[in-house]
Amino acid sequence: MRRMLRFIVILTGLALLGGCAGYRTVVVAESEPPGQSRASRAHTRNGIRFYERRHYRKAIVQFELAISKDRDNWEAHYYLAECYRELREYDPCLNHYRIVLDLRSEPAWVARVEYHIGWVYERRGKYKDARSHYDLALAAVPNHQQAKQAKSRLTSKKYKDREDDDDDDRGRRGRGKKEDD
Questions:
Q1: Which fold has domain 37-92?
Q2: Which pLDDT tens digits describe the chain residue by residue (181 residues)?
Q3: Among candidate residues 88, 90, 96, the one with its CA nearest the CA of residue 67
Q4: Among 14, 22, 33, 152, which residue is least crowded by beta carbons within 10 Å?
């Protein structure tokens, strides 16, 4: 019995040694996701943490660092636009939303970003532009509730009257003086 047990232990040992010597373990480094470096992702994560705590200026610094490492980091552009929107700095906000639209073509993202662009135009008093972006959001995702609500809000009489006033003011500015002066 002892002989047999010794034989099994030796045989198992040889099998393990022989098996390990015959196979080589190759460790392949995980490749970075296309278009996104590790540093860019780290800055994006840090920026999101600041954004969630409403530290928008600190978040902006992190997102700009992320974009400097990888211009195609759509997530950094999106959150950078969100920070600027929260700070009511609408020009850079719109620029970064447009970049997100160039980088992401999935209908859910298109709807989300188009809705936010419409929201910015609505805050600026550009109701026709806002309505067209809400339409684009609904074209991407027909049941996008926020865009539906915003569009129905803009069709109210209150906004139509404001829009007509804006059109009249633009026309006067373009002609210089009024004709009856």
A1: 1.25.40
A2: 777 667 677 766 666 655 555 555 444 445 555 545 899 999 999 999 999 999 999 999 999 999 999 999 999 999 999 999 999 999 999 999 999 999 999 999 999 999 999 999 999 999 999 999 999 999 999 999 999 999 988 887 566 545 544 554 444 444 444 434 3
A3: 96
A4: 22
Q: Which two tokens stand for residue 34?
A: 């296309």
Find where tokens 């992320």 sit.
66
Count of Cβ atoms closer than 10 Å to residue 21 Cβ: 8
Statement: the pTM of the whole predicted model exceeds 0.90:
no
Helices (H), the chain: 2-22, 38-52, 56-69, 74-86, 90-103, 107-124, 127-140, 145-154, 157-175
Half-sphere exposure of residue 46: CA atoms within 13 angstroms, side-chain side: 16
What is the distance of C-alpha 152 from the center of its chain? 26
Sequence-distant (6+) residues with CB within 8 A of 84 are 60, 90, 92, 93, 96
